[in-house]
Amino acid sequence: MTVELSTIADQVRSYGTVKAQDLVSVSPQVSNRLTDIYVDLGDTVEAGQLMAKIYDKTFRDQLSQAEAQLAQSRIALRRDSAQFERQRQLLEMDLVSDSEYEIALATYRNTMAQLESARASLTQAQENFNFTEVRAPVNGVVVSRSLERVIWHHLDKLCLNWPVTVALKLVFSYLYKIGVRSVLGRVCN
């Protein structure tokens, strides 16, 4: 039998808890019933990944309605703009009264305001429709999930992949053996 000089590895077996340093709650921006869930506990997700789908027919209908309202407002603006221009020209030739011109001007300005309102409604309807897809805001791991199938309340919590704090409870003699003196204060607390 030959005797060799070698390094003996120190191993410490212990129980502990891994706790994420940062948690991100993912909550939908719109409410309706949940139709699909694409992630489960422990799944790793990437920023932008589709996590769940909310029933979108209502939001799709609102989007169509907003698009139609914008089209109507554009047509009304062309009509009222032409009417206002005619009244302006007639006023310059003294063929209409000031009050008729002012009525045409007020109608034109009102139609412009309605067009801006229709644009804003379309933007909001588009955003609401887009929010029916719940996406991961960051890269991470799903560590908690509390949701209901009928009404949406809260989807998931993501544990970010970077800094993770590991809490260990070790016997002092093991700490000196493995050379971990800097954590003594934290372990003792």
Instruction: Tell me the number of strands.
Output: 9
| Average pLDDT score | 80
Return the CATH architecture of the largest domain: Orthogonal Bundle
Low-confidence stretches: 148-156, 160-178, 180-189
Order of helices and strands, N to C? EEEEEHHEEEEHH
Structural class: alpha+beta
β content, as a range? Answer: 15-25%
Count of all domains:
2
Radius of gyration over C-alpha positions, nearest whole angstrom? 33 Å
**What is the 3D form?**
rod-shaped
CATH hierarchy, class of the largest domain: Mainly Alpha
End-to-end CA span: 49 Å
User: In what order do the strands lie side by side in the largest sheet?
Assistant: 2-8-7-4
Q: What percent of the residues sit in helical stretches (DSSP H or I)?
A: 40-55%
Largest sheet: 4 strands, antiparallel
Number of helices: 4
CATH superfamily of the largest domain: Helix hairpin bin
If you consult CATH, what is the topology of the largest domain?
Helix Hairpins
Keywords:
single chain, 189 residues, Helix Hairpins, three-stranded antiparallel sheet, 4 helices, 43% helix, rod-shaped, disordered C terminus
How would you portray this structure in words?
By secondary structure, the chain is of the alpha+beta class. Mean pLDDT is 80; it is low at 148-156, 160-178 and 180-189. The relative contact order is 0.24. The radius of gyration is 33 Å and the shape is rod-shaped. Helix 1 packs antiparallel against helix 2. Helix content is 43%, strand content 21%. The strands form 3 sheets. The chain has a 4-stranded antiparallel β-sheet with strand order 2-8-7-4, with no helix packed on it. It has helices at residues 57-92, 98-130, 172-178, 184-188, and strands spanning 16-20, 23-26, 34-37, 44-45, 50-54, 133-135, 140-145, 156-160, 164-168. The longest helix is centred in the middle third of the chain and has 36 residues, at 57-92. The chain folds into 2 domains: 1-21 and 163-189, no CATH class; 30-161, Helix Hairpins.
